[in-house]
Amino acid sequence: MPGGFDYQFFIEVLTGGLLSGVMYSLVAIGFVLIYKTSGVLNFAQGSQILFAALTFVSLVERGAPFAVAFVVSLAVMILLGLAIERAVLRPLVNKPPITLFMATLGLSYVIEGAAQLLWGTQVHGLDLGIDDRPLEISGVLVSTFDLFAAGVAATMVALLTIFFRYTRIGLAFRAVADDQFAALAVGLRLPRVWATVWAASGVVALIAGLLWGARLGVQFSLSLVVLKALPVLVLGGFDSIAGAIVGGLMIGAIEKLGEVYVGPYFGGGIESWIAYAVALAFLLVRPSGLFGQKLVERV
Fold first, then answer.
1. 187 exposed, middle or buried (CB, 10 Å; 0-12, 13-18, 19+)?
2. For 5-20, what is the mean pLDDT?
3. Which of 91, 109, 198, 296 is surrounded by the most beta carbons within 10 Å?
4. Are 218 and 54 contacting, i.e. CB atoms less than 8 angstroms apart?
5. How many angstroms separate the CA atoms of 152 and 194, rounded?
């Protein structure tokens, strides 16, 4: 390795990538919750993130206190998740995966249209009260907002882990995720579990919407943040929360390090596509992801 290599700068770039990766993981977890219990790739997750952020910031701009706006937005997203499960997904149970995917794709446009009708199309700034300034830690400069966002995302992941590991509904979720037919045989009510998971995905969408909205601004392109979760899911596995976390950290680090150290050889700008290139290569080697359940074809 060249003698002029700047290790401190490398650590700064890597740290920034890992912190961004935590936010990617938060979006990916919304996918995992739905896919793990019902096998549905919820492409409406991005629209839910947009709707949550737009609802919150619109309430704040109309004079609602921060806490009130958050509680109301939380209630709205839980109700939205329950409504999606009851009105759209439950009637399509046992339909082919492509049908379920197309349903969520159409649902994403419906949610975006509803957001436009309710709150308009203008761009909103979202201030969470956290200054985005560099903070020096052991000689390494780190963004204060990135640290805050990573802390919130990590707390959310920890709470979800505790919920699904130590509560009755969480144990039911794990049982359904392992084997739906066995769960039915022991008397678990699948619709109730699905409804709870969709409600949880609404909560995750709100937290992700606030963090990404504060970083990028609350605008309709915010729904495209869902595309950032796809390489994360490919690397980590579509049915693993641990995989979503590890995959997010990997993608965040790959993007930042790739842009800084590989980008100059391609004229720069590779941060927007290098994650997808890595995901495509990974699909050829391990299609199920690092932590995903391996698929076995029946002859």
1. exposed
2. 85
3. 198
4. yes
5. 25
